[in-house]
Input
Amino acid sequence: MKNTRAQRVLTLGLSIALAGTVAACGSSDSGTSDEGSGSTASGPAGWRPNDSRPENEIHVLVLGDAAASAEKAAADRFNKTSDVKVVIDTGATAGAEYNTTVRTQIGTPNAPDIFMSWGAAGIAPLLKAKALLPLDDFIKEDPKLKSMFVPSVFDEEVVDGKSYGIPMRGVAPEFMYYNKKVLDKAGLKPATTWDELMSQVQTLKGQNVIPIGLAGADKWPQQIWFQYVYAREIGNDQVAKGLAGDASVWESDGSKKALADIRSLIDAGAFGQNFASVSYGGDGSAALLRSGKSAYELMGSWHYATVGDAKDLGWTTFPTISGGAGQEGEIVGNLSNYYNVSADTRYPDTVRDFLKELYSPDFQKAELALGNLPPTTDAAQFVNSSKKLDASTKDHLTFVSGLVNDAPTFQLSWDQTVPASQQVASQDAAADFFNGAIDADGFIKKMVQITSSK
Amino acid sequence: MHRLRTTERAGTKRGGRPSAGRPNFVWSLPALLFFAFFSVVPLAVAIYLSFTSYQGIPLLPPEWIGLQNWDRLLTDEGLHKAIYVTVALIVLAVVTQVPISLLIGVWAAGPQRNRAVVAALYFIPLLMSTAAITVLFASLVDPNFGIPATLREIFNLPVDNVFSNLLGNSTTALGVIAFIYLWGSSPLHTLIYQAGARNIPEVLYQAAAIDGAGRVRQFVSITVPMLRNTMVTSTLIMVVGTFTSFDIILLLTRGGPSGGTSNLPYYMYDQGIAALDFGYGSAVATILIVIATATSAVMVKATGYDKMAGTQEGI
Output
């Protein structure tokens, strides 16, 4: 009999344990989604303090890469004078994993008070969950939180008239890199118009170099070409409408013209025959440019560090296209990262004061030392006065800074602009068009489908 | 536990059944609990999620959407392509790995010392991380700096040749992936065949030799039939393992070109994790589980693996 009793007890234990797991799964779903104690009269709009958060500290979750050192230093400076301490938690190094952490923690007492995002599409689900604090009250108290940043960058995380993100870390526009030696040898100057580029392709092919290097195995490098040719043909404002779901933009004549431009460049052999096997991560396309096996490459400002050897490296704006509706100087690329604030932070005043660190000279200098160009209006002056940077790096950063400050529009990379669920699909569409799996009509159909999904 | 055992023995007063003293239900509890927590519960959650829309934010709990994800599966070309790629990879794995592992395994089973040395070298890939191997192969197949570029120089091939775009064409890309799997996992199967071949009694070969059977005849009529169970086991491991292959694809091709190497596990990752659509990703995962379970069940039944008898009876 003892035997059976033990058995029963254990069976019971097992079922309780199992039921417990299931219940835990269930309760975490419906957990803290409701409002906390309600907003107090003194706090900013939308504030719902969560009193079970740690006392006298705020937590900042940063991406765990090398650039986290600048944020740690900022926290150390801040903590010298603050009673409520800033704790920097370093998260995953990869963006996708970092986002998963934020998504699972948000709304719990363990969630960070401040965390990073990459643009409006990324924070859309968090806004739906009412998890973000609008920062307009902070900006009213300290207008520099907005005015110190390049407007085209700051506006990315303004949703329905409310500001949710303060730009931080580097701004990374995309533009043309080229190998000076290769162009010299072919007797060419960097192409300033599309027609020049088309004719240079033939000359460069005759020199036995790949006219334009392309890391096609990674898919997103193809997308940069669409971003720029569309910006030139129809302008970034139209592109933004199209990405927001206006199908007529994709079906317009300008869109078809842009696709025809890209097709003629591919068919002219500008990218060589084997770009689909070249990767970006494994030093594929960067090595081509460095070693002079390719002449041009369209890439983001991080390419300077990836190529490594700046001896023969040149850079210039993307060629203009005659007859296109785009304004002069429109650019595309990755705007910046943004700091967002949890709606249930316990110490909003501390959060506001810490955010001011992001445009302080000390923080900007620390970012520059890491090779990141801060998205602030006065970044260029720090570039020139920096003693840590060599002449070539200064040239590069000054060019990037000028490009961003003079740009009438700055379109965030398409894969970052479409809903997160469509990111991969948008890269696939670009890659499929390049390798001929879909034609212009197929691309238009895909973009309409991608941008119309919720 | 000790007390439980003695009480069990005391069960003899109820008639001393033959089961007395054998492990009862309680003994299997740790394994059962482990299985329940790490297999049954996640599986149940995945099936539940496949009927919901969920973006991985607990603040926005999974929203019940009925059969929407499943409807989408029916017309999803990407999924159909993924099933084709999965089957193609399995066929490629079996067709290349079985003959090579069998031949090398039987050869390595011989007692000669030089064979032992070669076999030891051959097993090295087993010790290496798949991720490291893949990164290495990625630079080997790079068209401008890898083997294709060298071949072009040595043999003076045209710029556009069969090796120049290995990852840009879905047939050759699948071939490269299958080759890396062959290189990385055939040593394991060789090891299995080597052990199997060493278990074949020498007397069979001696008798065959007396009857005048040559090497090839001995291999076909003795070695292969005697290795039947080994072959079934090894092939089962191969098929089930290839069903879940993912790492090489993620690191080498990211499913490209145009989904040409995106198998079911990669497609599940692409739709569920990368696109943060856990509902649809779970639906793909469920499809993967159903197909993989059905395939291994059919294989087990068809080969008689479930009631496998020794091959040495009567000797």
Notes: The CA atoms of residues 234 and 252 of chain A lie 9 Å apart.
